[in-house]
Amino acid sequence: MNATWKEREEVGNTLTLRLAIRSATGLGRRATRALLYPTTLYFFLRRRPERRASRAYLERVLERRVSSWHVLRHIHCFACTILDRLFLLSERFKRFDIRAFGLEDLDRVLEGGKGVLLIGAHLGSFDALRVLSLERPDVPVRILLDVGQSARLSQVLNTLNPALAASIIDASGAGPTVAISLKQALDRNSIVAVLADRGQPNNAMQSADFLGHAAQFPTSPWLLAAALKVPVMLAFGLYRGGNRYDLHFECFADSIAMERSQRAQALAQILQRFADRLAHYARLAPYNWFNFYDFWHHAPAPPKASPAAGGAVAESGDLLRRS
């Protein structure tokens, strides 16, 4: 696992973030967006590793050579979604033109009463998916999030919405505790949202082909899905410029099953399916990819089998049965 993204210091500090919040709430979204241009330029000039990672990604997704202008556009798109996060966390949805696709599939799986595991990525704005609180006010939405990562950002933004902070399941806790919290939420027919494209340094990772190159993805979301035996849907909130977001919901599996004798092969197939769908949406909105580190760093070729995967699923299943 490439841990470079964990080692990079957070951009800004608590004071800067608080000033950003005051500017956004005092000046409004339109005026504050004008400040994003010098911010983008500053980030571009100061963060060489992120520039290099942006260029590497863009050349893969666009399938051509890119210039510094493309990188600047990529960073600016990221800055826009960060600003919008302040408003989305404050539930000021009226400022946005948010269009949802695939809600009928979400309704269908919720009717089963098992809850839904909603899997996304650092593509677009996962916060835009919180518009579900308007579309489905009777369905609780819980978010699995590593609170320890981006601690300053989480601290400031969570002051905007204490109820949202209380709904977060902290992924940085012990594995059994997280698994039990997930099961309890799903037993209440909740939507549990998980990001599945970026692992922690101590997470089990496995390679899949992503945009024509081998990249590593965490296996834990899929092992948990198999153990929990709940419907799995993909979800991506793509930023389309201005105030528009397109929310895409797509059924991935009514239930993920991994037979003991074929668990390794099943896991490899699932990861590749996810990587293929992620690539599809990345091509729809190429400047929405917000993993500003070398995502393909020394990733081995996608394996055909991973014997350790079966044991991880079995352990998760034993844990959930004991709960």
Description:
This protein has 323 residues and is an alpha/beta fold. The protein has one domain. The chain is built from 14 helices and 9 strands. The strands form 2 sheets. The chain has a 7-stranded mixed beta sheet, sandwiched between helices. A hairpin with a 2-residue loop joins strand 6 and strand 7. The longest helix is centred in the N-terminal third of the chain and has 22 residues. The protein is globular and about 55 Å long. 37% of the residues are buried. The N terminus and C terminus are likely disordered.
Task: List strands and helices in order, with pairings.
Elements: H1 4-7, H2 14-27, H3 29-34, H4 36-46, H5 48-62, H6 68-89, E1 97-101, H7 103-110, E2 116-120, H8 132-135, E3 141-145, H9 151-158, H10 162-167, E4 168-170, H11 175-187, E5 191-195, E6 205-210, E7 213-218, H12 220-228, E8 232-239, E9 244-253, H13 263-284, H14 307-322
Parallel strand pairs: 1-9, 2-5, 2-8, 3-4, 3-5
Antiparallel strand pairs: 6-7, 8-9
SSE string, helices as H and strands as E: HHHHHHEHEHEHHEHEEEHEEHH
Strand order in the sheet with the most strands = 1-9-8-2-5-3-4
Global structural class: alpha/beta
Work out the strand percent: 15-25%
How many domains make up the coordinates? 1
Tally of alpha and pi helices:
14
According to DSSP, the number of beta strands is 9
How would you describe the shape? globular
Low-confidence stretches: 1-7, 305-323
The Rg value, from CA coordinates, equals 19 Å
Mean pLDDT: 80
- The end-to-end distance, rounded to whole angstroms, is 31 Å
Largest sheet: 7 strands, mixed
Secondary structure: helix percent: 40-55%
